[in-house]
């Protein structure tokens, strides 16, 4: 395995921060009730946590680290339910289609960024011997 390039690390952080900041600024400026803003913020935080947990559990399984089936299933459930909750919320929201698209795209950009940042963090914290070693040599 090669170490992650600085360009990809920077692009990952940029995607995460751009998605999160755009989504939150959109919520801040939205003419929604406070409880609606809270719902969309909670969905963002839930989605980010679910996506990072899912990426970690998938990666653990690929590297032979034990992951319980229930945790793996919960990670998938959390990630997919966050996306579904956002979709249902936007479907029923009284927003312009352009606003709905903005929230959907910034949400997905944030999830992608969170997954990429977690992957890069894990790859770059690996000991140097493990970067060039095979998974069997690491174990």
Description:
There is one protein chain. This protein is an all-alpha fold and 139 residues long. The chain has one domain (7-125). Helix content is 82%, strand content 0%. It is built from six helices and no strands. The chain is flat. The chain starts with 5 loop residues before the first helix and ends with a helix. Residues 8-60, 71-123 form the YiaAB two helix domain.
Compile the SSE list and pairings:
Layout: H1 6-29, H2 34-62, H3 69-92, H4 97-124, H5 128-132, H6 135-138
Helix pairs in contact: 1-2, 1-4, 2-3, 2-4, 3-4
Protein name: YiaAB two helix domain-containing protein
InterPro entries: YiaA-like, YiaAB
Organism: Hymenobacter fodinae
User: Which class best fits the helix and strand makeup?
Assistant: mainly alpha
Largest sheet: none
State mean pLDDT (0 to 100 scale). 89
Report the end-to-end length measured between terminal Cα atoms. Answer: 15 Å
- Topology as a string of helices (H) and strands (E): HHHHHH
What percent of residues adopt helix (DSSP H or I)? over 70%
- Count up the helices: 6
Radius of gyration over C-alpha positions, nearest whole angstrom = 18 Å
Please provide the count of β strands: 0
Assign an overall shape: flat
Low confidence ranges: none
Q: What percent strand?
A: under 5%
Overall structural domain count? 1
Domain YiaAB two helix: 8-60, 71-123
Transmembrane segments: 7-26, 38-58, 70-89, 101-117
GO cellular component, one term: plasma membrane
GO biological process, one term: DNA damage response
């Amino acid at each position: 395995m090669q170490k992650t390039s600085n360009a990809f690390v920077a692009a990952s952080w940029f995607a995460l921060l751009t998605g999160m900041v755009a989504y939150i600024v959109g919520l801040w400026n939205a003419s929604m009730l406070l409880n609606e803003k809270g719902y969309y913020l909670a969905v963002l935080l839930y989605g980010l946590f679910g996506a990072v947990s899912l990426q970690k559990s998938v990666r653990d399984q690929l590297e032979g680290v034990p992951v319980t089936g229930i945790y793996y299933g919960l990670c998938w459930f959390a990630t997919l339910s966050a996306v579904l909750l956002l979709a249902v919320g936007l479907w029923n929201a009284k927003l312009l289609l352009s606003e709905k698209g903005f929230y959907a795209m910034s949400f997905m950009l944030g999830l992608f960024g969170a997954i990429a940042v977690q992957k890069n963090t894990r790859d770059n914290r690996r000991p140097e011997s493990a970067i060039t070693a095979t998974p069997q040599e690491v174990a």
